[in-house]
Amino acid sequence: MTCWALQNVKVTTIFPHLMNTGMFNDCTVKLNRAFPPIEPDFAVKQIVKAIEEEREEMTIPQNVEKYFIFQYLYGSKMFRKLAEIFGNFEYMKTFKKIREE
């Protein structure tokens, strides 16, 4: 938190994939074997580990980080095209609302 001149304040930013909490019921991902929904217990353990290690960022699961390398190497346009191929913009199409508002 050096931008605010705060000492001894640490922040860990978490980038989770789809969580298996019911919020994303019936959402599908094209590469489901590579990126299955995350179990909450697993996410909690990874978050606590990241905080204990004083990491600035944590992607859950970590194999998703490899996917973001494409954005850094090839830029946003190529990353969006890759995301489109992998169906990242489609996974909510199969979402089913579980309650009325």
Structure notes:
This protein has 101 residues and is mainly alpha-helical. It has 3 helices and 2 strands. The chain has helices spanning 40-52, 63-74, 76-85, and strands spanning 13-16, 57-60. The protein has a two-stranded parallel ribbon with strand order 1-2.
Task: Indicate the topology.
Blueprint: E1 13-16, H1 40-52, E2 57-60, H2 63-74, H3 76-85
Parallel strand pairs: 1-2
Helix pairs in contact: 2-3
Give the helices and strands as they follow along the chain. Answer: EHEHH
Oligomer: single chain
What is the radius of gyration?
16 Å
Spatial arrangement of strands, main beta sheet = 1-2
Class by alpha and beta content: mainly alpha
Work out the helicity level. 25-40%
Query: Beta fraction of the residues?
Result: 5-15%
**What would you call the shape?**
globular
Total strands: the figure is 2
Number of helices: 3
Global mean pLDDT: 78
N-to-C terminal Cα separation, in Å?
39 Å
Q: Main β-sheet: number of strands, strand sense, barrel status? A: 2 strands, parallel
Q: Residue ranges: pLDDT <50 for 5 or more in a row?
A: none
Short synopsis of the structure:
By secondary structure, the protein is mainly alpha-helical.
Label this structure with key terms.
101 residues; mainly alpha; two-stranded parallel sheet; 3 helices; 2 strands; 8% strand; globular
